[in-house]
Write a structure and sequence with these properties.
Elements: E1 7-15, E2 18-27, E3 31-36, H1 47-50, H2 53-56, E4 59-64, H3 87-100, E5 107-111, H4 113-124, E6 131-135, H5 157-166, H6 175-186, H7 192-202, E7 220-225, H8 233-242, E8 247-251, H9 258-261, H10 263-280
Parallel strand pairs: 3-4, 3-5, 5-6, 6-7, 7-8
Antiparallel strand pairs: 1-2, 2-4
Helix pairs in contact: 5-6
Length: about 280
């Protein structure tokens, strides 16, 4: 029997005037790294790195479930509203968690929509962080799917979401982790993946903000999977080229959910990105 070193707790934070009970997990000591999950998923995507003693020996990894996701319940009165994540709400949530956990300029590591908001925070609140690892992140992605299909009475939204993202997982991903990754989407709350994708495909403001990001004091490193169909290596390169001083690594044999779908393949790239943050510091 093995008991993992990950600790899970709840923190009560105020987000845009509303109290939210947010679940987070952490492991390790040292430089704080705040990890953001993808759309329609939760903190379980980061479990392998949270259990990686080489990483946690020098870093305090913290991952939290966004409200409506995983173990973080929706706000009171959610049954009377439509969940549609916005840039401002996402930023307010990340900053509220940082303040509540007293994180002093953590590294921010986010994937997919988490990578997108990492770039937004690099443009708007770089002083609150010491570096950004933007994973599967680009300036803007137009929808190549109809998100209204995720909210139908005659179809299971979670299973449809899993079917959609299955094409974004690398063929090199181990079957066990492929299905573990898909399970998170299958078990997502009603309308949550749809609401996240609304943010992901409507957040156009980054296009004009990238050139204003300053990387001399707060480095930006973009990681992208070679098999990512949503944020392609070309999308990531276009984005990195627009940020003065940003760096980019294309990860072979990986797709859109690298830390979850193929943890062993992602591990060296993430450790390398942490090294870049340390070198810049």
């Amino acid at each position: 029997m093995t008991i993992e070193d990950i600790t899970g707790r709840y923190v009560n934070v105020e987000i845009e005037g509303q109290t939210q009970r947010v679940y987070f997990e952490e492991a390790g000591t040292g430089r704080p790294v705040l990890c953001l999950h993808t759309a329609g998923a939760d903190t379980r995507q980061w479990r392998h790195l949270l259990n990686d003693t080489e990483v946690t020996s020098e870093h305090r990894l913290i991952a939290f479930d966004m409200p409506w996701h995983g173990k973080s319940l929706p706000p009171a009165g959610f049954e009377q509203e439509e969940y549609l994540l916005t840039t401002d709400t996402y930023i307010a949530t990340v900053l509220a968690v940082c303040e509540a956990l007293a994180l002093d300029r953590p590294i921010l590591a986010g994937c997919s929509m988490g990578g997108r908001i990492a770039l937004q925070l690099a443009a708007r609140h770089a002083d609150r962080f010491s570096g950004f690892i933007a994973i599967e992140a680009s300036d803007f992605q137009a929808a190549w799917y109809d998100i209204d299909w995720f909210d139908r009475p005659d179809a299971h939204g979670g299973e449809m979401g899993a079917a959609l993202v299955s094409a974004n997982i690398s063929p090199y991903a181990p079957d066990v982790e492929r299905w573990n990754t898909l399970w998170m989407f299958m078990s997502s709350g009603p309308g949550v993946f749809r609401g996240d994708l609304s943010f992901y495909t409507k957040d156009e403001s980054l296009v004009d903000r990238l050139s204003s990001i300053t990387t001399k004091q707060t480095p930006v490193h973009i990681l992208v999977g070679a098999y990512d169909l949503t944020c392609t290596p070309e999308d990531a390169k276009r984005t990195a080229d627009a940020i003065p001083g940003a760096s980019l690594t294309v990860m072979d044999q990986l797709g859109h959910f690298p830390m979850s779908e193929h943890p062993e393949g992602f591990r060296p790239f993430f450790i390398g990105a942490l090294g870049r943050m340390a070198a810049a510091a």
